[in-house]
Amino acid sequence: MKRQWLFLLLFTATLTLSAQERVFPLVKDYGGIFDIPSATMKPDPTQVYKIVVDVYTGAKEPTELASGLNNVARMLNLHVVGGVPPGKLDVVLAIHGGATFSVLDNDSYRKKHGVDNPNIGLIKALKDAGVRLTVCGQSLLGREIPLSAVNPDVEVATSMLTTVSTYQLKGYAVFKF
């Protein structure tokens, strides 16, 4: 009887969680997450979260969002739903590798892929949330992308490596997406 009760309890909890709607507390329309009010491990709302993110994962298809950028939105939303005020999130992105093409302006992206850049809104939403977005100049030039083709909401950095090392030495936690 105890096993049946435990199974029923777990099954009901799973259904409740899976039926829950995703929320977007900071980055609107991107990086949807589930609020879990009963969680006992939550971020510290008094802490300033200094994070530099090595963003290297792009999209499988040109019509899809770059998963690395969308994970940044998820990370921000998770901290805010966990109680961290947006003003206590200090996040810098070091974009390179497969994510490089995601930061092209729309005209350049359309020339390369034949479709509009689906990341334009996500990039704007991240910047509006206070994220500093940088793209590796080495990745751009190595892929023969002119610096003028970069979305104006994204800064060109000397490199991803120097961006990460600079911020890591300033005490930022390093994430990789």
From TrEMBL:
<keyword id="KW-0732">Signal</keyword>
<dbReference type="Pfam" id="PF02635">
    <property type="entry name" value="DsrE"/>
</dbReference>
<dbReference type="InterPro" id="IPR003787">
    <property type="entry name" value="Sulphur_relay_DsrE/F-like"/>
</dbReference>
<dbReference type="InterPro" id="IPR027396">
    <property type="entry name" value="DsrEFH-like"/>
</dbReference>
<feature type="signal peptide">
    <location>
        <begin position="1"/>
        <end position="19"/>
    </location>
</feature>
<protein>
    <submittedName>
        <fullName>Intracellular sulfur oxidation protein, DsrE/DsrF family</fullName>
    </submittedName>
</protein>
